[in-house]
Specification:
381 residues, mainly alpha
């Protein structure tokens, strides 16, 4: 009896250990999967945060330097346009750093032909050159505060093109964001007399306003077409793809600007412009160089957000930096911050917060859906 009792007692722990071992294996596998998903999620958020910093810092600093160039004696529209795309060589070393990070799972997909890629780069390059030229005219004829707030209309245009080209879903909050930001820009157009100085005619102010609005619309179309190209034509998920979509169109845009410099005759006045720059020749060169570098940093952040999320999200983040520019313009360039600009600034912030809250709701809904799917999967297994 004692021996049988001992055998039974020994058998029960053995089976328990076997079941417990299976449970431990399942739990370990689930924990490893959760850990991998968490690491991937944190890595994604880190990239998003980095791209946002690149976009906001690059955009704000480059815009202020562009205004500084005009205020201190610069007058070449084509040179101001050229530096917005000419900094692409600083990105070339990144091709070697990220060459080995290509995901082989996507290399088997059918890639577009070289002729198709050339046409894509040519189209985006010429489009970028024309858009940068309009922005240069706008920055020349408008104060930084007015210029930056008018640029907020880019969000409304991007929403429209995202709806038509990228199948973007609209909600009441997104619509509210679009309407509010549009009203913010329109308010500056109606109350523009306070910004027209004796040195600037009403006609030039109107040209600056129209060029800035047209540039905002063109750039919104540019972003939506980029997103469409990433998803429908290139179909690649590597950082190398982002670099190519920045470097090659920038090279073409720079070539177009060089042609514009010679065709307009502005190439002949650049030496005199540098010699007559109020802060000196070194300051002139450093202004152009750092403007070019900062615009490339901004574009990398912009393209990264398009690649990781959407063109509309990248535009919303870009709009986030616009309300800060009038404040910086008051500090550095002594622009007037009158009542109309304050109201326009508050409306722009309101529109931005409406869109951010909508993204928060979408993210919460997506997380709840994923958790429900994981629970169903766990129960099934």
């Amino acid at each position: 009896m004692e021996n049988s009792t001992q055998q039974v007692e020994l058998q029960i722990p053995e089976s328990s250990r076997q079941i417990s071992g299976d449970d431990d294996t399942i739990n370990t596998n689930q924990q490893q999967q959760i850990s991998r998903r968490s690491n991937k999620h944190y890595g994604w958020w880190f990239r998003i945060f980095l791209y946002i910093i690149f976009l906001l810092v690059g955009q704000s600093a480059a815009t202020l330097l562009g205004r500084f160039y005009y205020d201190e004696g610069g007058n070449s529209k084509w040179m101001a346009t050229f530096v917005q795309s000419a900094g692409f060589p600083i990105l070339l070393p990144l091709f070697f750093l990220f060459k080995s990070s290509k995901n082989t799972a996507f290399q088997s997909r059918k890639k577009p032909s070289r002729s198709s890629l050339f046409l894509i780069y040519l189209f985006f390059g010429l489009m970028l050159a024309g858009d940068n030229l309009m922005y240069s005219y706008g920055l020349l004829y408008l104060p930084v505060s007015t210029y930056s707030l008018i640029c907020a209309s880019q969000l409304a245009f991007n929403c429209l093109f995202s709806l038509l080209l990228n199948a973007q879903k609209f909600t009441a909050l997104i619509l509210n964001s679009v309407v509010i930001v549009t009203i913010s820009a329109a308010l500056l157009a109606v109350h523009s007399e306070s910004d027209i100085s004796t040195k600037l005619s009403a006609g030039k102010y109107a040209i600056g306003f129209v060029c800035t609005v047209a540039a905002s619309a063109t750039y919104a179309l540019y972003l939506s077409l980029l997103e469409l190209t990433f998803k429908r034509v290139i179909k690649s998920e590597t950082f190398d793809t982002i670099l190519k979509m920045q470097v090659f169109p920038s090279f073409i845009a720079s070539c177009a600007c060089v042609v514009g410099l010679y065709a307009s005759g502005e190439i002949r006045i650049l030496t005199a412009e540098m010699n007559g720059f109020n802060k000196g020749e070194i300051s002139y060169l450093m202004t152009l160089i750092w403007t070019a570098v900062l615009w490339q940093i901004c574009c990398i952040g912009l393209l990264g957000l398009i690649f990781e999320v959407s063109s509309l999200f990248s535009n919303v983040i870009s709009t986030l930096g616009l309300p800060a520019l009038p404040v910086l313009a008051v500090i550095f360039f002594h622009d007037k911050m009158d009542g109309e600009k304050v109201i326009a600034l508050l409306l722009a912030v309101w529109g931005f917060l409406s869109y951010v809250y909508q993204n928060y709701l979408d993210d919460s809904k997506a997380k709840s859906s994923k958790s429900e799917e994981n629970e169903v999967t766990t129960i099934t297994h």
